[in-house]
Amino acid sequence: MGLYLLDYGAGNKLGHDFKWVTEPEDFHRATSLLFPGVGAFETAIGYLESKGLLQPLKDPYFGICIGMQKFDASDKAVPHMGWNSADLVDPNHNAEGVKPSDRYYFVHSYRAKYDVENYPEAMTWVHTTSQYRSGDLCLRPSGKGNVFGTQFHPEKSGHAGVSSPAWTFRANDHGDLVVTKGDQYDVREKTVTADAAGAVRNLGKPVALAAKYFEAGADELCLLNITSFRHSPLRDQPMLAVVRAAAECVFDSIDPDGTKRPALEVAGAYFRAGADKVSIGSEAVYAVERLRASGWQKGDGTSAIETIAHTYGRQAVVVSIDPKRVYVDPKAYDGPYRNELVYGKDDGPEIERNKAWWYQCTVSGGREAREVSVVELAKGSEILGAGEILVNLIDRDGTGLGFDLDLVNLVKKTVSIPVVASSGAGSAQHFVDVFQKTPVEAALAAGIFHREEVKISAVKKALKESSINVRD
């Protein structure tokens, strides 16, 4: 007898002893059942049926984040990813540990609207609500027999803030996995010494930095494996070990990058190691090229975006875009991307004055350019089922000049899913600028945090002083 866990594999912060549910008889042995949900409802139910686990649950039952799409009357997903508050429906009711002043981590694609007038009986289940764009989201049904559930992820709702640090991994020349950060995607040392010439820049051990950023108040940790295109991530045991070790000491969202086929095996390995999302880079570009060739109707069902989103839900899929600027003569250019051109400002950097450019996507860690624009890739990724877009920029990487606000606004106008701005942050003010001047949902930085040029606390302080909501 005791606590049983139905398939997840990470986030045991409180150190409870538990056993895996592996056969139907385990339901009778369990006194409590925890069912964390990383997946799409239909796929999850199909899996439980195939294993003979879909039985009436009569023991105390705690479900986390699964099946919300079955309570949405529409078939259009509006992903909700990030931190939000929880307001008690009845302040006189047992709070069950929920504090309105706290923030909780959500990652899902659908909402259940709080609607007492049309669904009075259903609303008696609601414990707390949260603002979800233009409506309310039902968060925690409770007080109904043996069922208790949350739409947010308690195991990922640790101490955090609005800023989102990331780090880039690659193996150094001795085979050790290290945290590195380059300038415009070049991670080799520029200092010419006997022992450092051309060496991979080493900014520290990934797990130690993970714990450090968690304690400092980061919302989400993004692990970018920039050499994953060279081999199968399933054989990348060091990267999987990093994700697993980070999940043991970090209780925020963890997002590893570098996914390539076989997509489901890779995604499953990372999720079981403790990741919350996987990000797709080069393979997304190839998939959108195929989608464009078919007339932008729908995918062929074989891309990593589609297969992972179908099994785990679109909220589990992030597309990481690595574009670069292509400068053109603004008066003479009449190419296919003329409607996407960004024009340099007279008071902008000298390289941008009297010029125009479009953003071209790259693959293989920025090493190869493809005839795909950032607008096409963002649009196609959403059609295929991505739940979030991470927007990098090779031209700004490591420069400290600030986020490319034109690029961020361009992508935000193209898609309805959440967008994360990346590349170029050099100060706390740059975070203020990107949130004040674009509708972006999140912003990410790496090198300035690794080198401790800017502290997360300084970013949070600047955001608060600018009346931008942050978590304490």
Structure description:
- An 8-stranded parallel β-barrel has the order 11-13-14-15-16-21-22-23, surrounded by 9 helices. A 5-stranded parallel β-sheet has the order 2-1-3-4-10. Strands 17, 18, 19 and 20 form a 4-stranded antiparallel β-sheet that branches.
- The protein is built from 12 helices and 23 strands.
- Helix 6 packs across helix 8 (374-384).
- It has 2 domains: 2-156, Rossmann fold (3-Layer(aba) Sandwich); 163-465, TIM Barrel (Alpha-Beta Barrel).
- The model is unreliable at 8-13, 159-190, 192-203 and 250-254 (pLDDT under 50).
- With 472 residues, the chain is α/β, with parallel strands linked by helices.
- Strand 19 and strand 20 (368-373) form a beta hairpin.
Q: What is the topology?
A:
Layout lengths: L1 E4 L13 E2 L5 H4 E7 L4 H10 L10 E4 L15 E5 L2 E2 L15 E5 L19 E5 L2 E4 L8 E4 L12 E9 L5 E4 L25 H11 L3 E6 L11 H13 L3 E7 L3 H11 L4 E3 L1 H12 L10 H9 L4 E5 L1 E6 L13 E2 L12 E8 L4 E6 H11 L3 E4 L13 H10 L4 E3 L6 H10 L4 E4 L1 H4 L5 H10 L7
Parallel strand pairs: 1-2, 1-3, 3-4, 4-10, 11-13, 11-23, 13-14, 14-15, 15-16, 16-21, 21-22, 22-23
Antiparallel strand pairs: 5-7, 6-8, 8-9, 11-12, 17-19, 18-19, 19-20
Helix pairs in contact: 3-4, 4-5, 6-8, 10-12
